[in-house]
Amino acid sequence: MINYFDFYGLPVKFNIDEQELKRKYHEKLKSNHPDFFVHDAEKHKEALINSSLNNEAYKCLSDFYRRAVHLISINSIEFSEKLPADFLMEMMDINELLEDVKAKPAQDEIQKVSSLITQIESDLKAGLSEKTKIFDHTDPVDANILNDVRDLLLKHKYILRLKETLANIAAP
Into how many domains does the chain fold? Predict the structure, then answer.
């Protein structure tokens, strides 16, 4: 697996200097643009590969969630989709509320479920922010923190699906 942080010479952190990332992206974009090598087939092919890698790396590192998954992956932490049982039990109540709202959509009930989901999402984001800041200032790499971040990311992904389901119910 290619380490995009190394590709740009950036520190391996969740919270990176995004302006520095953008600067390095443009720098590589200029130096590897295929149009500069139209008269040399080998260099043109290499520039195409490097340009594609540059775009892929930037797309990954410029998005917090993709960057987090990448960081976890390059540290050999398995990224399974298995959610903790206690979280799933908590979500069972929310899913029951969603089913009730789906069966009988009422604005006050939709708002109630929406508020619950928003609060859970807010708590997850706060936990994610805290864990990523700790990781960014910890050396050597702490696999326990990475596992916690992975779990928080998976929970957040689940919450986003609940929000989407609620939005579909609320839509006229």
Answer: 2
